[in-house]
Amino acid sequence: MAGRLAKARRALDIDTGGGEVIAEAPVLPAAMTVTESWPPNADRARTRLAGRGVRVVQTDPGAPLPFADRSFDLVTSRHPVQPDWTEIGRVLEPEGHYVAQHVGPASAFELIEYFLGAQPEARAARDPRTEAAEARSAGLTVVDLRTARCRMEFYDVGAVVWTLRKCVWWVPDFTVERYDLQLRELDARMRRGEPFVAHSTRHLIDARR
User: Fold this and answer.
1) Where is the signal peptide (predicted)?
2) 85, 92, 121: which is closest to 106 by C-alpha?
3) Other CB atoms within 10 A of residue 113 CB
4) Which residue among 43, 99, 112, 122 is the one 20 to 30 A from 29 at the CA level?
5) Which domains does the chain have, with CATH numbers?
């Protein structure tokens, strides 16, 4: 991503969060724009990226991108909430690229389902083949698609609590009090030397207009 940004003229980063990823790029294009829909993150991005001349645009979830057709030669994202392939294709100029890392299917679901029970419909979401097909339907050419399944090991119940408080969308109603029994069972298991194992899934997609 840093290499692509260094060569771009006009770039857009979608769902930028607090701007953490863009801030790590050593070279940014002369015209760099990011979008973010969650107000606290948008504020953080403005503070973090202001010194580098990045334009931060707060958007509404699910709304069209507030940019003219063919505005960018590069669109990027790290973990977009829900990629809108039609809008991505619209704001890309011809031969422009969308390069992103998406969360894959059933990511960390061993942990999520430990607390919530089976989630069959949610497990089927974010399939990389489905997303690639949607990109093609929007008129994009998928140049590269790579997948990864990464092992997560939890050795301490405190790490589980910290993670669920950080990723609040995994178990939306999580509190220590509400899930006291499950947490105590996990704690006993870990004290016996059995880590809790889950897997995060990701896919890297490069699509060209």
Assistant:
1) none
2) 121
3) 17
4) 43
5) 2-103 (3.40.50.150)
Please tell me the total number of residues recorded for the chain in this structure. 209
- Residues 77 and 51: their CA atoms lie apart, in Å, by 21
Do 61 and 37 meet the contact criterion of CB atoms below 8 Å apart?
yes
- Name the nearest CA neighbour of 77 among 130, 146, 20: 20
Q: Among candidates 46, 47, 12, which has minimal Cα distance to 31?
A: 12
Mean pLDDT by 10 residues, the chain (209 residues): 96 96 96 96 95 95 94 95 94 98 95 95 91 96 97 96 94 96 96 96 97
How far is it, in rounded angstroms, from Cα 103 to Cα 126? 7
* Helix pair 180-191, 109-116: axis angle to 10 deg: 130
Structure tokens at 165: 């408080």
CA distance 133 to 110: 27
